[in-house]
Amino acid sequence: MMLRRYIPCILVMVLVLALCSFALAQNQVLYWGASGWDVSQVQQRLASWGYYDGPIDGVFGNDTADAIRTFQWKNGLAVDGLVGPATMEALGLPVAAAQEAPTVSRGAVSDRDSVTLLARLIMGEAADEPFEGKVAVGAVILNRTQNASFPHTIAGVIFQPGEFESVENGQVWRELSTEAIRAAESAVSGWDPSGGALFFWNPAKPVSAWVWSRTIIASIGRHVFAI
Amino acid sequence: MRFGFIPLFLTALVAVAFAAWGYNQYVARRSMEVSLNNRYQRAFYDLLTKTQNVEVLLGKGLVVNGREQSSAIFASVWQQSMMAQEDLGQLPVSPQLTGRTAKFLSQVGDYANTLIRRAGTGAAVTREEWDRLRNLYSQATILNRELHKVEARVASGGANFWEIPRAMASSKQGAPMGPPQHADFRSINREMQTYPTLVYDGPFSDHMERKSPLGLTGPDISATGARDRALALLDRSPGTTYSAKVTGLVRGKIQAYQVQINGRKAGGDERATFLISKKGGHPVLLVTGRKIGTPKISMTEAQRRAERYLTKLGLGKMRLTYSIRQNGIATFTFAGEEQGTVIYPDLVKIAVALDNGQVTGMEGSDYLMSHHTRAPLKPKITLEQARSFLSPNLKVESSRPAVIPTDGGNEKLTYEFKSTLAANTFLVYIDAATGEEAKVLQLFSSPNGTLAM
């Protein structure tokens, strides 16, 4: 059962692997049977220098191999009919840097996305609350991501269907205030005035009777906080 | 006759226009409903597939013996159960009804993850671990069976997921009657209650919820005592008069009095909440809400003030590990220091407003949760030996001994190597007892500060 489901995945992976190895091969040495853009470039160069008069079709055939041999012989290179780095350079084509130190990209990670998303929910749920009440609402979201019973990402918690009224009615998409952003930053930095709460609600508003079965551990502004 | 015809015609025209508009609205709403329902259905069927995989994989986990195979199987358990948990969180069923199931899926994944790490060290599966695995397997079987009951109802067209939020909205006022799946999920939740608590070395283990603070020392204090303590520890901005009152007790892991502080000043009132622990009167948390003006203070000056405030709190011997500057506030993270070793679990954060240098925030709950008298920190291997376990790709810039928190809520003595690969900086922690890599963090620097991930 499981295997059948994995067959498409495996096929795709095999295909990707095949393509990768092919691309790698192209970067290193071109030889008879190779094809692609690199081959076209070699053919182009050979044709413009008069070594090759076949079609520029990107397929490394006998004609191309012959032209390469002539080119190598005339330029004092090892005559092997293969396009390695030396031949590539002699043809004036860029050589792929192969055996250098591993390069790793610098990365583009930041915590802006989580801060902004958290600020949106704070804006939607606690725009009129005092600053510590805003931080506490943000902290509840983060506490949920750390709890086994809730989704483990900020987006997962915020967009859990039916959980937050402001998400359901679109209030969260209002313009953000600086205070909401600062509150979100504080919550992300670890400030939690709620004492580790997982729920909050406004007791003056109608809420599902179930939440009252939770243990209330703090009360900030108009909200109560519970675990 | 002629006068009667035109109004009649216009009325008909308006009626047709309204009908067309209404029909359009109906079609649009219908298509939204269908597409929303499809998303819910997808999440539900994905959940089914993955819980099924979890059951099968756990079954295999019971019989697998080779190191390579068990790593592969437990890695799949981890992945599949975490994905199932994610799907569950996308269903329009309240966490009241899915909470226990979600917790089960988190724990299965988390536990599988600890088994992968165990398998990596070459240790054999113990009898206790095997029994735990068998429990999880039978629980996964129950979950699967129950989910298939829901599936049977969904497949027979008996109900749409779309109806759940609607029914829940209407049941808020009156009787707690839900649609059929609602009842189904209630019964799943009931079945899942029967599964025992699971304690192992991972962040979602049950023992993590029961952790109690190690750093709370001293006798209980009164509410008045807490108020005086808060006023004494407050960093006052010049020209402001402060008053404080206790507004409640926060009953988290650290029980604390909630002291509300009002600062009066012409042109800018401030309001702060200071949490002072009931036991011992330790400062737990300070949050100040006030307008932050244009920055006038340098980061160096802000750091000096943060350090001075630490001394005021009685926490002189700490080391700055991290700082960040956001929206006119500089936040400094200090870690404990003992026997020449950085103690990362003992964290205290201080926030300084850059407009006048006032300390507007402090966070000491990590410190209070973990600070205790530690046994002498004796590494089993030397720094040079530890260095030999590092990846040869890394260039070491600095190194020092450090105690770090583990996923399971314990502590570990390690050597910290700050090292670079090309433009990237990493912190690699090598276990000072075994030479294993205990953790790898990457540092992302920005003009505002450094982010460790």
Mean pLDDT of chain B: 87
Largest interface: A-B, 54 and 71 residues
Strand content of chain B: 25-35%
State Rg of chain B.
Answer: 29 Å
Number of continuous helical runs of chain B: 11
Number of H/I helices of chain A: 9
Distance between the termini of chain B: 83 Å
How confident is the prediction overall: mean pLDDT of chain A?
79
What is the radius of gyration of chain A computed over CA atoms, rounded to a whole number of angstroms? 32 Å
**Element pattern of chain B in H and E:** HHHHHHHHEEEEHEEEEHHEEEEE
Largest beta-sheet details of chain B? 13 strands, mixed
The number of distinct β-strands of chain A equals 3
Low-confidence stretches of chain B: 171-178
Cα-to-Cα separation, first versus last residue of chain A: 41 Å
Secondary-structure element string of chain A: HHHHHHHHHEEE
Oligomer: heterodimer
Structural class by sheet pairing and helices of chain A:
mainly alpha
Q: Note the main sheet of chain A.
A: 3 strands, antiparallel
Number of strands of chain B: 13
Low-confidence stretches of chain A: 10-27, 97-102
Strand content of chain A: 5-15%
Protein architecture, described:
The complex is a heterodimer of chains A (227) and B (453). Chain A has 227 residues and is mainly α. Chain A contains nine helices and three strands; from the N terminus they run H-H-H-H-H-H-H-H-H-E-E-E. Chain A has helices spanning 2-28, 37-48, 62-74, 85-90, 112-126, 131-145, 154-158, 165-168, 178-188; strands at 199-201, 216-220, 223-226. In chain A, helix 5 crosses helix 9 and helix 6 (131-145) packs across helix 9 (178-188). The longest helix of chain A is centred in the N-terminal third of the chain and has 27 residues, at 2-28. Chain B has helices at residues 2-63, 67-88, 95-121, 127-155, 163-171, 180-193, 206-209, 223-233, 299-312, 365-370, 383-387; strands at residues 241-251, 255-264, 270-277, 283-289, 318-326, 329-338, 341-353, 359-363, 395-405, 411-421, 424-431, 437-446, 449-452. Chain B is globular, with a radius of gyration of 29 Å. Chain B has 453 residues and is an alpha+beta fold. Helices cover 45% and strands 26% of the residues of chain B. In chain B, strands 1, 2, 3, 4, 5, 6, 7, 8, 9, 10, 11, 12 and 13 form a 13-stranded mixed sheet that branches. Chain B is built from eleven helices and 13 strands. The longest helix of chain B is centred in the first third of the chain and has 62 residues, at 2-63. Residues 171-178 of chain B have low confidence and may be disordered. Chains A and B meet through helix 6, helix 9 and strand 2 of A and helix 1, helix 2, helix 3, strand 1 and strand 3 of B.
